[in-house]
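Q: I have two molecules that I believe assemble together. Could you output structure tokens for the complex as a whole instead of separate predictions?
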Amino acid sequence: MSTVRDVLASALLLGGVFFSLVAAIGIVRLPDVYSRIHASSKSTTLGLAGILLAVLLHFGTYEVTTKVLLVILFTFLTAPVGAHMIARSAYVCAVSWYAKTTRYDLERATVVCATRGGPASERVHERAIELAQERQGVLVFLHVVDTAELSALGPAHASAVTREMRTLAQAILRTAQAQARAAGVQARAELREGEVSRTLQAFVHEVGADVLVVGYPHTAPGNEHEAEGRLWRLLGGLQEQGNVRLVVAR
Amino acid sequence: MTWVLDLALGGLVLALLLGFVRILRGPTAHDRVVALDNTSSTVVGLVGVYAIRREQAVLLDVLIVIALLGFISTVAFARYLERGAQQ
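A: Yes, here they are, computed for all two components at once.
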């Protein structure tokens, strides 16, 4: 009887020590706070439970059993709470996470930057890059080749002009990407054709963008009213839906 | 049985040392708090094994106190760091 109990206690003890060691190795080896919390809280609880059950089996008196069961209950209640609190605190303090983290459920940010090219766009790109860095997001540069105005030209002429515009757009997007790369952000570039406002809105839905960065329209001083109107027409339906944050960079 | 206990003690001491490595290396205060929390749990296990080894059931009272202190200190540190971030 006693030997059976001893063997059982030994097995529980060694199992518990194994899990405690796994937790410690995880704490040293894992790359960021959040994964270390994950390693520590889970396997420590299990390891401690194993060791304490071994203690329970070894002594086996009422007094010891009560105390040990209390401690096990206590750890099972407090370990998750403690882990949650410290993870929350780390998140609030903006402790950075492992660079290769791919899933981010709290604030998954896709930043779309609509660019027109030209010297004024540089500031718009800058703002978009900043936002992407701030929210650890995905940055997408979008340029829409406006084909709506071309229908007045003949079909052959229109296609030649479109080809030219496409080449230009690719150069603009490459410049934007280079700017992002210089700031240490990987950016995707997308080229679309069509009526600007509608295409922009369709794209925002397509990629599930959280933030849309656009530039303030070109305008002469004193002509702000007209510029506002153009911006309003451009963003149109996006403003009503409200799940996309609009950033107008000047 | 004794060799099992010694092995367990050795394993827990190793876990403790690994926890100390993380406490020393950081890099953030949160890493240190997590390692400290883990250390306190390991010490609870260590005291449990030691109680068996010495046949001293009295030591289990120590175990309750350490478990309590570990939790309270983790929560206190978390609150403290969070407060610091908000100011």
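A: One point stands out. The longest strand of chain A covers residues 138-146.
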